[in-house]
Design a protein that fits this description.
337 residues, alpha+beta, four-stranded antiparallel beta sheet, 6 helices, 14 strands, 23% helix, globular, binds zinc ion
């Protein structure tokens, strides 16, 4: 099959890695981002030649907001389209084989930026309690909106904090991708839930971790945070709502508020313990029109170490801090009701 864009991605394109079975988004437009290839530094350095596009007063630097939260005249949380989208358009997921090892697909979808706060120097751990609730409500509302689009199947919400975690701007923000396919990490988790005998994998995890107790670092009536038994990286945390629900966007407000507060508390404790370490928050929720078996959750992956050749080559992680030690250091006083 001949095509004039073979080998050159003019628009975003998905390509299948036949060795790993993983899809790759080829998105050359993202290389046009300011400072896309800046040499790593400990802090996300500010480019002082241009104002921060996410600060109040510079709203015109982004496309018009899709949603804002807060009192009239001022915003507290703002959702804007990503200027350099990895996914865009209404194209359905259609796979084309250009040869035995050249499999590609269209990458329709949505790519949005969620500005977590008007304050440039804030981070999740520094947000007010009310603000964490607004951020979680914004996540819920946007995913709900994505779920209405028939060509989309799944929304991935993430927050990258710090250069080492992939953040290209200092101002605290997250990203939301509405995707036309279910990505492999999520599909693998779905398969693990399906294979887990008897009951729900994460409901069982909550029970088992609470029974042992010493890997639990935060708990209230609605949410539990553990350094999981199987932690692959130092100070890894898993935030699990107690109520069994496959979908973040269908969870009651109280659960979302509790998860936002738990993240604030645990990220604050992490910062107190090891300083301003970079981290990734990854929100995993079931694909929209799929219910069971799944239990939504949030991964917290601090970037305390770098994934090196052995990990990349084998998929086997080497964790230099055992989760029992990590939990002991991170543990908070359980809030009294
Ligand atoms: Zn800013
Ligand atoms: Zn469950
Ligand atoms: Zn997960």
């Amino acid at each position: 099959m001949a095509g004039d864009d073979v080998g050159r991605a003019q628009v975003n394109q998905l390509r299948l890695d036949p060795l790993s079975g993983r899809w790759v988004v080829v998105s050359t437009i993202r290389a046009e981002r300011p400072a896309a290839f800046v040499v790593r530094t400990t802090q996300v350095q500010e480019d002082t030649s241009r104002p921060c596009p996410f600060c109040p007063g510079h709203e015109e630097a982004s496309p018009p907001a899709l949603e804002t939260y807060g009192p009239t005249g001022a915003w507290l949380v703002r959702v804007v389209p990503n200027l350099y989208p990895a996914f865009s358009g209404d194209e359905p997921f259609v796979v084309t084989n250009r040869g035995p090892v050249f499999t590609q697909a269209t990458a329709g979808g949505i790519h949005e930026v969620l500005i977590l706060s008007p304050e440039h120097d804030a981070s999740w751990s520094m947000l007010s309690d009310e603000q964490t609730g607004l951020v979680m409500a914004a996540l819920r509302d946007r995913i709900e909106e994505h779920s209405q689009r028939p060509t989309l199947r799944y929304s991935q919400a993430i927050v990258n904090s710090g250069r080492e975690a992939g953040a290209s701007l200092e101002h605290p923000h997250g990203q939301l991708m509405g995707m036309s396919f279910v990505p492999r990490e999520l599909a693998e988790e779905q398969a693990r839930f399906a294979r887990f005998a008897g009951s729900c994998l994460l409901c069982t995890t909550v029970d088992a971790e609470e029974a042992e107790g010493y890997r639990v670092i935060y708990a209230d009536e609605r949410v539990v945070v553990v350094c999981p038994f199987w932690s692959a990286t130092p100070y890894e945390m898993l935030v699990i709502p107690r109520a069994h629900s496959p979908h973040l966007y269908r969870s009651p407000t109280e659960d979302l508020v509790s998860v936002g507060l738990a993240l604030k508390a645990c990220l604050g404790q992490l910062r107190d313990l090891i300083g301003d370490v970079a981290y990734n928050l990854v929100f995993h929720s079931a694909p929209y029109r799929v219910n069971e078996p799944f239990h939504w959750h949030v991964h917290v992956w601090p970037k305390a170490t770098t994934r090196a050749g052995f990990e990349m080559g084998t998929g086997v992680a080497i964790n230099i801090v055992n989760p029992e030690q990590a939990a002991e250091q991170l543990r908070l006083a359980v809030p009294t009701a």
